[in-house]
Amino acid sequence: xHHAIVGVLHPIYEKIFISDSYATRKNKGVHKAIxxxxxxxxxxxxxxxxxxxxxxxxxDHEVLLRLFTRKIKDTRLLDLLEKIVVNGGVAGRGLPIGNxxxxxxxxxxxxxxxxxxxxxxxxxxxxRYMDDFVVFSxxxxxxxxxxxxxxxxxxxxxxxxxxxxxxxxxSRANSLSFLGRRIFPSIIRIQSENLKRCLxxxxxxxxxxxxxxxxxxxxxxxxxxxxxxxxxxxxxxLRKKIYAGQLS
Length: 248
What we know:
Blueprint lengths: L1 H13 L15 H14 L2 E6 L3 H4 L2 H11 L3 H12 L13 H21 L5 E4 L2 E6 L2 H19 L9 E4 L4 E3 L2 E3 L4 E3 L1 H19 L5 H16 L4 H8 L5
Antiparallel strand pairs: 1-3, 1-4, 2-3, 5-6, 6-7
Helix pairs in contact: 1-6, 4-5, 6-7, 8-9
């Protein structure tokens, strides 16, 4: 049912979503978001990175339902959407994590922020994936001022807050940590915690193979999956070490 609902909503909202919103959309996704971020970091010296404080726990039902009515006029569909929304969260706030509709609703909800930054503030170097977003600029002071504007806009219009510890301005020389990658102007590297997770999974599969819990085919599938992910980025020497058994 959730899949069918998103199928109905997608063509309605795809027309208004900005091109640099990459979550739960056709022909978008994590890899294209990372490549787009690298494009922006090549042409901008500074960036403001942030994400919304506990978005799925704090998304306001009233705000979301009001956003639906701007584009949807079918009362039966609106009634169904309301039932889904109010059944999630507590005291009029929050959405179930993992539901396909919840993920798509986040694009509808935070699309307001997208247009605020792109149109009101003319921030053309901007990218969002779910509730993580980055704004790029060659003017550090511009980003400092923008941070206050974003805080005010979210509080007043969407009843949301930014995650304080995850909100900061940095230089491209220090790289950008985004979607599990460290992005430099010339290369993209996997973040250490993601690499550790990959290696840990491989070690677990190797142990399972050794004690007879899985067969060789399953072991090779796991290794191929990990390597295919690493191969997308600048990891040639890293993959050689893993194949040679020098990392575990």
